[in-house]
Amino acid sequence: MSERHPETDAIRLQAPITAAREHSVPLYLTSSFRFDDYEHGRALFGEEQPGLIYSRYDNPNTDEFIAKLRALEGAEAGIATASGMAAVFSSIASLVSAGDHVVSSRAVFGSTHQIFTRILPKWNVAVDYADASDPESFVRALRPTTRVVYVETPSNPGLELIDLAWLAGITRARGIPLVVDNCFATPHLQRPLALGADLVIHSATKYIDGQGRTLGGAIVGAKALVQEARFFARHTGPALSPFNAWVLSKSLETLAVRMDRHCASAMTLARTLDGHPALEAVRYPGLPTHPQHALARTQMSQFGGIVCLDVRGGLAQCRRVVDALRMCTLSANLGDTRTIVTHPASTTHARLTEDERQRVRIGPGLLRISVGLEHPDDIIGDLTQALDGAIG
Ligand SMILES: *Cc1c(COP(=O)(O)O)cnc(C)c1O
User: Fold this and answer.
1) 102 touches 142 (CB < 8 A)
2) Cα torsion angle, 116, 117, 121, 123, sign
3) What spacing in Å lies between the alpha carbon of 306 and ligand 1's midpoint?
């Protein structure tokens, strides 16, 4: 690890300079790389010497992106994937075999839930959920066959937190890898590996891109585990395209300044809307009313860019609010420069049963706000006029 600050590495690490002496890294649109001679090709394939072979394995753009993300997360090793879901699936699939067991936090991204409930059972891998609100439920869920403990903190969309240092103490003692989806916090706010986690996965589509342009993902962490994921990904093919890697690598250069602004505006929005008569509650880890505010203060350096609103009057009132928005976009993405409002119950989490949604506190009146980089007054103004209209 270099002695520079990680956010400087996120700007200064660069793929090897070519004869053109470029200042900004070029885009390497090449599917394969040349061998100097017979011996060179043989040695590369035999893993006797490092070097580029084929872009499903490595590419200067994906390598640069991963070098920067490793610096930010403090990770020994890493691989890039085509999407966040490719990272979720590759990390878990590389760790489990038929007959194994996975414990996961209940509140996970919608497609992650589908992997756990519909896909892994096809290969006889069982998954049990534990609840962030009852940490001991993680311990009770462990079995002798548990091979992965998987958590999302803060969770999407309910903003529940899990004490990573505490959980890592338990998984480490049993030799079970702890995998953390760090998408909501980003390494600028939270570094799970330093707290004892073994692998961090990312949907780079969100804050890492930060401008709603490309899909991407990554797995970073302990070398031996990343090696397993690398083997799985090399041969099953969820490779990140060089173009998307180029975009994401550029985006990491501005992650710190963007996150500072997302967090500041989210805090202002949460404080302003707290107590609005159209709302039952404002959920934000930075508000003292958040049940895990104390944990958020120690585990995260800031509280993130997502604010959740529980609109009074359920679905009917919620529809009035979203249909009254003038600037904020209705969309399923998050982590964009533009403020995005999502109604999880009818979109991202529509495939969960009513009971499953209730257990992760996704009611019909829940709105997820991904606070963007517009002037905070304009964000607050748009949401306030929409909420005022709902009670008027
Ligand atoms: C979006 C998201 C994913 C999936 O990422 P994609 O890039 O859309 O495949 C996984 N986890 C969380 C928390 C997410 O928000």
Assistant:
1) no
2) negative
3) 14
109 C-alpha to ligand 1 centroid (Å): 7
Boundaries of every domain in the chain: 6-252, 255-391
Cβ-contact 65, 13 below 8 angstroms: no
Question: pTM of the predicted model, to two decimals?
Answer: 0.96
Tell me yes or no: is domain 255-391 CATH 2.40.10.10. Answer: no
Long-range own/partner contacts, residues 359-362 (CB < 8 A, 24 or more apart)? 359/106, 359/131, 360/106, 360/107, 360/155, 360/158, 360/160, 361/107, 361/158, 361/160, 362/157, 362/158
Give distance in angstroms: CA of 348 to centre of ligand 1: 10
Task: Give dist(CA 255, CA 247) in Å, integer.
Answer: 13
Q: Is the CB of 340 under 6 A from ligand 1?
A: no
pLDDT, tens only, 44-94: 999 999 999 999 999 999 999 999 999 999 999 999 999 999 999 999 999
Using a 6 Å cutoff on CB, does residue 156 contact ligand 1?
Answer: yes
- Measuring from atom 11 of ligand 1, which residue has the nearest CA? 109
Closest residue by CA, ligand 1 atom 2: 203
> What span, in angstroms and rounded, lies between the C-alpha atoms of 361 and 281?
12
Class of the domain covering 6-252: alpha beta
Specify the DSSP element, H or E, that contains 342.
Answer: strand 340-342
Any atom of ligand 1 within 6 Å of the Cβ of 62: no
